[in-house]
Structure formats: C-alpha cells, structure tokens
Amino acid sequence: MDPVTVKFVQLIGAEIFGAILALFGIFLFFRGITGKSDFVLEGKGLKAKLTNSAPGTVICLIGVGLIAFSLHSSSVIREQSTLPVERVLDVWLANSYRVTEPMNTEQVIDTIVGRGENVRFTNNEITLSLPMTLGQIAQKELASTKYWHILAAINKDRHYYTFSSAAEDTQIQKGALVQVWAVSKYNGMDERTRVQVTAVDRARGYDELLALARSDRPFAETFSEESFRHFHREELDLSLEQTSPGNVRNLRELSLKLYGDPKYWPIIVWANRDTLPKGAGEDTRVTTDQLLSVPRFMGWPR
To answer: 240, 252, 243: which is closest to 280 by C-alpha?
Structure first.
C-alpha cells in the first residue's frame, strides 16, 4: 500500500475514534457521571482552558477536536491522491480486456476509462508515417509496449485487424489513422481544482498567442493546423471564432470581455489586420455589428 493510501486509512481511523470518544462523552454527561477535570489547549496564538468540567464534557471535546483535525487533513490527502499515470494506464489495460466486439464507442469509453466525476482523458488521432505494430505504437505514444491492448480495443472498429485475434505484433499499415487515449493532467482533480488549473493553463496559452501576435509574423502562416495540434497536446482546445463586439467601445474592452484581461488586445489586431484600420491599438473603437475573428481556448471535452 502506497504512503498516501496508508495516511488516508490512518486519518479515517482517527475520525472513527474521534466519533466514538464524542459519543462516549455525551453518554457520560447524560448519565450524570460526576467529577472534576481540567482541559488545557495551547498552540501558536491560541490558549484555551476548561476547568472543573465533568469528565464527559472533556472526552466529548477531545473527540470533536480529533474529528475536526482528521477531516481537514484527509481533505488535503484526497487532493494529493491523484494516481500516477502508469497506475491509471494499468487500470485501463485491465479494463480493456472486458471490451467486446459489439460495443460502440461510448460503451468502450465506459468500460476502459469509466464515467467517474473526476475522470479525464485526452483523445488524439495520429497518422502512421510507416507501418507499425500495436506494440510499437504503444511504446511510442504510451511509453510501454504492454499497453498495446488498450490501442487494440480503442481502434477495433477501424477494420485494421480482427479484434479477437489482435496481438502485440499485429501490424497496421502506413497512412492509417490511429486513435490514442492518454491520461489527462486534469484526471482525478475535483471541479474546483480543475477550474483553477485550467484558468492558469489558458492564461499561459494566451500569453503564447500574445507573443506570436507581437512577432509581426502573418497570422495565416502562424495560426495554422500545427498551432491547433500544438495546443491540443497541451490540453488546450483552440478555436477560431467569429464574434461581434456587442456593447464594448474599443479593443481593450473587447479583450477584457473575451479573454478576461485587457492586455490581449494585440491578438485581436493580429487576427483581423484586413478588417481593422492600419496601426490599430488598444483604444481603437469597435462597433456593435462589426464581425471579428478571435482565437479562443474552449473547455476541454470529457
């Protein structure tokens, strides 16, 4: 058992023991068990003292304090208990042997990855530049040949092989499109943590676009399919949208509306050099019905 799991079990035990103490203290209090006990709590910036109290009261307070401490600590442990990528892939591998030929895509996802609230994976499609076996693809994309059966299950409906007889050395022809699932960096994160991490990642992505915008390279050359693939690998789903400014007055306000920060207005200029006036800046006015192209990062699917 790994250290995080051991610590989590210990904290659960502490919660149970604290609950027993609290209940026992309440029992003593209502049974009228008498006596005098002193309870002193000292810590950094904190000092509390309970004198001449009944034993039941003291025991109950100790139990409640133990529960509060273990609940706080276990919440931290839960946030840190995301499984390593290899452990997740090992689970997927075991699950892939439960996939059957008649299953559709959604059933394959449910069987291999599952539908847990915090389950996240990436879905990529690669084109083989030369013939490769399932084992070789698994080694290249998932860092181990042992995960070949995951790929076999995912791609079973592409008719490259008979699923029931697929093996590690099953070869797929040059030019074939192969679907690869990988463990998302957001896998296991609760919603609050995922939102925070995603916001940071998007800001980093927009900073990268801002640097490209300021490089004076033509938008059409820079904002290409390779850009989409680059950000996709970073789990940022980039799209080019057509939008109207609405009730904003200038590019600075439009940047704030679209990106959450006014500093990204050069990205809008970069994407609309043929539409905006030459030398457009942050104070350049926009109209309500003006149609502009804007690069944006969307929420990551599944």
So the answer is: 252
Per-residue pLDDT reduced to its tens digit, 48-86: 444 544 565 666 666 666 666 655 544 433 433 456 889
117-129 as b/e: b if 16+ CB within 10 A: eebbbbeeeeebe
What is the CB neighbour count within 10 angstroms for residue 237?
15
171-209 burial by CB neighbour count: b if 16+ within 10 A, else e?
ebeeebebebbbbbbbbbbeeeebeeebeebbeebbeeb
Q: Could you give the CA distance from residue 270 to residue 223 in angstroms, rounded to a whole number?
A: 10
Domain limits, the chain:
3-80, 85-183, 191-298
DSSP 8-state assignment for residue 183 = E
Question: 116: buried, middle or exposed (CB in 10 Å: 19+, 13-18, 0-12)?
Answer: exposed
> What is the reported pTM?
0.58
Q: Which two tokens stand for residue 166?
A: 């697929």
Q: Do 55 and 37 touch, CB atoms closer than 8 A?
A: yes
Q: What is the pLDDT of residues 234-249, one digit of tens each?
A: 888 888 889 888 889 9
